Amino acid sequence: MSQPPISSTWRTKRINIHQQYYWVIGEISLWVKCDENTIRLAYAYRSGLEWESPENPPKNLLWHSWPVYHPDQQIRITPIFPDRPVVVKPEVSFRLYPHSSLQSFVRIPIWLQITSVGKKENILITLPSVVLSHTWFGKTTEGELCYWISSGMRHQTEPDPSRIHSAICSIKVVNESDDDLNVEKICLHTESLSMFYDSVQLWSDDIAVSYRGTQDATHIQSSGTPPKESPVAKRISTPRKPQKKGFTAKTFSSIMDLPGLGFTSITG
Amino acid sequence: MKIIDYFNSNSLLTIETVHLLLRLGVLILIGIPLVLIMSKWARQYFTKKYSSQSGMIFGKLISYTGIVVILFSILNEFGFKLTHLLGAAGIIGIAVGFASQTSVSNIISGLFLITEKSFQVDDIITVQGITGVVLSIDVLSVKLRTFDNKMVRIPNETIIKSDVTNVTRFPIRRVDIIVGVAYKEEIAKVRQILLEIAEHNPLCLNEPEPTVVFSDFGSSSLDLKLLIWVEKSQWMTLKNRIMEEIKIAFDREGIEIPFPHLSLYTGSETKPVPVRIAGQDQTEGADNKS
């Protein structure tokens, strides 16, 4: 049984027959073992608790199995962004004056794409490293289901190798309109972002969100290249949903009515 | 004897009759299956491309149009002219109209239902106390599948005249849970516990925010209402889980959920009236379980 060091988490790993492997990434623990015919995988989420004996997974675990097509079986865990947009609030709501901009950072818990690498590659399963709560971005009559990021948007960030389960998104909010922009929360379509890794930290490509007033939709541009904060980072995963270079979406929201009674209006 | 001579000599089975039978055979044996296949294809295509509602409409449109065309073609083969039919239809129409008022009303109501789009195929609606999934909006009626797997046919006219609740029209729904706690409990503490339960349940939406409303001073309890929002497909799952989580949390925190009860007092300064059941030695308290 082996627990790989942090830097090798994202590398392809050979799975020996009848040997059990164990990973802890974020709140999820993964167990993988292989015999002559199948790969078996089990997982469980922890809530701040450590397993007493990683070698022995809990007895009530549900094991998933897949047929093995190649004797030289390998497993690769690839970090990807969540399958839904995420909603994030600034630590402190801020206001952008006309034709001004602000750089912010947000940490987004990653999902894990577990791939069987043998004669050919097969994606076995995709799992969140952290169970995120759901939220709704929009009105009660229309909008989209998103994940809620509790960590918030900050104006500065530091790479943290101990937090391999989160990727830093660098967001530049630009107010191109002639009005003030109150930013209380932002909806990010992370499924359109690439992920980069510089052996210490996971990053997304640079995102520029341009607000053009209430009559025009917000324009979102992702660079597709490593972020300025880590120009040497290498691409480790491609977008879940490739999108056209720059797209428009409802991104901003200012809550104008009493929360909790189901009425939120979108101003941008 | 040549075949043509055979037909010429046979007054019943002439060449023209054979041609007529062949044309009728093509119309019936090929035309009708072709219409049904096209109708099925159209339903699948438009369902995949747009919605179940669109698939149903186009499928029915093609099948009804095709059948009418085939029917008129058959009548034409027998020598019935369309113009003559239209003339006769005017007289027959008046007679049929009086006899089929309800059916015509259902047909027109069905058209209004489709154009109004108050609900569509696959929506969950409640009509006159019946809740079910819309299977189809047909010419005369709407068909529902109830959750215990019964098929209910509701005439379109009934639906037009009734209140219809479309449960799944909007993407999110609110779950309202009424919780009664004993009068001795602290409202603030109960409110905090309820909000924490909502916050920790991943299905419960962070926004719109969960809310606790002090609903009523009940006869046996303080009634609070927990209002939480969920994506519509998870409504039942969330409601079940939250109810269990509330019970577990209240048990852990020692919050009493009182059962309905009645206390008898002769006055605010006095003790409860004692009640003794004949044949028993001990005196029981004045609390009667209702």
Count of the separate structural domains of chain A? 2
Q: Number of DSSP strands of chain A?
A: 23
| Neighbour order of strands in the largest sheet of chain B | 4-3-2-1-5
Tally of individual helices of chain B: 8
Kindly report the greatest chain-chain contact and the residue count on each side. Answer: A-B, 20 and 20 residues
Instruction: Report the end-to-end length of chain A measured between terminal Cα atoms.
Output: 52 Å
The H/E string of chain B reads HHHHHEEEEHEEHEEHEE
Helix content of chain A: under 10%
N-to-C SSE series of chain A? EEEEEEEEEEEEEEEEEEEEEEE
Shape label of chain A = elongated
Question: Can you tell me the overall shape of chain B?
Answer: elongated
Helical residues, percent of chain B: 40-55%
Secondary structure class of chain A reads mainly beta
Report what the structure shows:
- The complex is a heterodimer of chains A (268) and B (290).
- Chain A has two domains: 6-78, no CATH class; 81-110 and 130-249, no CATH class.
- In chain A, 0% of the residues lie in helices and 47% in strands.
- Chain A has no helices and 23 strands.
- Chain A has strands at 13-14, 20-25, 28-34, 38-45, 64-67, 74-80, 86-90, 94-96, 100-109, 111-117, 121-128, 133-138, 143-154, 166-175, 181-183, 185-188, 195-197, 202-204, 207-211, 218-222, 234-237, 247-249, 252-253.
- Chain B is an alpha+beta fold and 290 residues long.
- Chain B contains eight helices and ten strands.
- In chain B, the strands form three sheets. Chain B has a five-stranded antiparallel β-sheet with strand order 4-3-2-1-5.
- In chain B, α2 packs antiparallel against α3 (52-77) and α7 (187-200) crosses α8.
- Mean pLDDT of chain B is 85; it is low at 283-290.
- Chains A and B meet through β12 and β13 of A and β8 of B.
